[in-house]
């Protein structure tokens, strides 16, 4: 029996890491990669494959199957979810016939609320926690562009089967994916959330890319204020994060390509729906819940909503 892995969402994250999996296991008799896509992306990838463009090379990959029909997709052993956060419920329910009680679900979304939302839909399933560091985006339907050297994937769970997680880690490693199965996954996911939430909120509110954000004194102060607010919430929640998490986050951002920006800012500039609820409003609501004042996050939310 083949291990069947579904990739739900072929954006910057799902398309890139799904592409690496499809490339590695194209002739495998043990692993089957299924792309779950719709619309123009489904049409293009079905006909021409998925093109991945990085700084140094281009490649075109074909999965074993690309479909949006749960009957055609069939039962999945693992499901990697990488749609936008506002599509979590609709996208998963649209393929629920492909999800059995044994399907292990790995969310790779922007935000930290996905595992709880998915577990509400599928209470019997093992839902992992995960996050990635990568600068990648849809250049055109069926075309993913990745910028810079970052491409790290972290995942784990305190309750899921260690056997199934080790098997997934081996699958990632054999596909040359820089992945880490970590014990303190909640802290790891929150470190990423602090990075992406403050960045998305600042770049979208100020309409600036990373270089402009870091080089303009007022913008940098605005960004640091967001970091201070969100890290205070993480501390009150009892998360064991580094004492210098704000400095570490700034240093991480300084290593990111300065002409890049957040995915939320890109969506905002393109007139698309944005992930405001998971990346900004969530922090405002957590502040209310834990009685932590978040005036800068509130200002961003009020402007962008």
UniProtKB/TrEMBL annotation:
The yes or no answer to whether the keyword NADP is present is yes
Q: Which domain of life is it from?
A: Bacteria
Q: What is its EC number?
A: 1.1.1.169
Return one Gene Ontology term, BP aspect: pantothenate biosynthetic process
Q: Which residues form the Ketopantoate reductase C-terminal domain?
A: 185-305
Read off the Pfam families from this record. Answer: ApbA, ApbA_C
Keywords for the protein's UniProt record, in alphabetical order = NADP, Oxidoreductase, Pantothenate biosynthesis
Q: Which reaction does it catalyse?
A: (R)-pantoate + NADP(+) = 2-dehydropantoate + NADPH + H(+)
Q: Which Gene3D superfamilies match?
A: N-(1-d-carboxylethyl)-l-norvaline Dehydrogenase, domain 2 (1.10.1040.10), NAD(P)-binding Rossmann-like Domain (3.40.50.720)
Query: Where does the Ketopantoate reductase N-terminal domain lie?
Result: 5-156
Q: In which pathway does it act?
A: Cofactor biosynthesis; (R)-pantothenate biosynthesis; (R)-pantoate from 3-methyl-2-oxobutanoate: step 2/2
Q: What are the recorded GO MF terms, alphabetically? A: 2-dehydropantoate 2-reductase activity
Q: Which GO terms describe its cellular component?
A: cytoplasm
What is this protein's function per UniProt? Catalyzes the NADPH-dependent reduction of ketopantoate into pantoic acid.
Tell me the protein family, please: Belongs to the ketopantoate reductase family.
- What is the protein's name according to its record? 2-dehydropantoate 2-reductase
Q: Which organism is it from?
A: Flavobacterium laiguense
Lineage start: Bacteria, Pseudomonadati, Bacteroidota, Flavobacteriia, Flavobacteriales
């Amino acid at each position: 029996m083949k291990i069947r892995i579904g990739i739900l969402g072929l954006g910057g994250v799902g398309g890139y890491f799904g592409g690496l999996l499809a490339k590695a296991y194209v002739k495998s008799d043990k692993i089957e990669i299924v792309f779950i896509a719709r619309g123009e992306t489904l049409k293009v990838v079905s006909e021409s494959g998925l093109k991945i463009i990085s700084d140094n090379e281009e490649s075109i990959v074909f999965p074993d199957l690309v479909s949006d029909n749960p009957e055609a997709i069939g039962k999945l052993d693992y499901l990697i979810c990488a749609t936008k956060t506002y599509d979590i419920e609709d996208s998963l329910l649209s393929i629920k016939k492909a999800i059995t009680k044994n399907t292990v679900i790995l969310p790779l979304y922007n935000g930290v609320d996905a595992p709880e939302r998915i577990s509400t839909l599928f209470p019997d399933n093992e839902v992992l926690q995960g996050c990635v560091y990568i600068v990648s985006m849809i250049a055109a339907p069926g075309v993913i562009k990745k910028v810079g050297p970052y491409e790290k994937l972290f995942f784990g769970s305190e309750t899921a089967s260690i056997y199934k997680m080790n098997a997934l880690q081996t699958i990632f490693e054999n596909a040359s994916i820089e992945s880490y199965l970590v014990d303190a996954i909640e802290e790891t996911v929150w470190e990423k959330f602090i990075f992406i939430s403050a960045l998305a909120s600042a770049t979208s509110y100020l309409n600036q890319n990373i270089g402009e954000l870091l080089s303009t004194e007022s913008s940098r102060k605005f960004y640091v204020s967001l970091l201070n607010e969100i890290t205070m919430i993480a501390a009150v929640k009892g998360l064991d994060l580094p004492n210098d998490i704000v400095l570490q986050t700034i240093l991480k951002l300084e290593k990111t390509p300065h002409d890049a920006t957040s995915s939320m800012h890109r969506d905002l500039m393109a007139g698309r729906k944005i992930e405001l609820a998971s990346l900004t409003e969530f922090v405002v609501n957590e502040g209310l819940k834990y009685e932590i004042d978040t005036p800068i996050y509130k200002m961003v939310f009020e402007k962008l909503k």
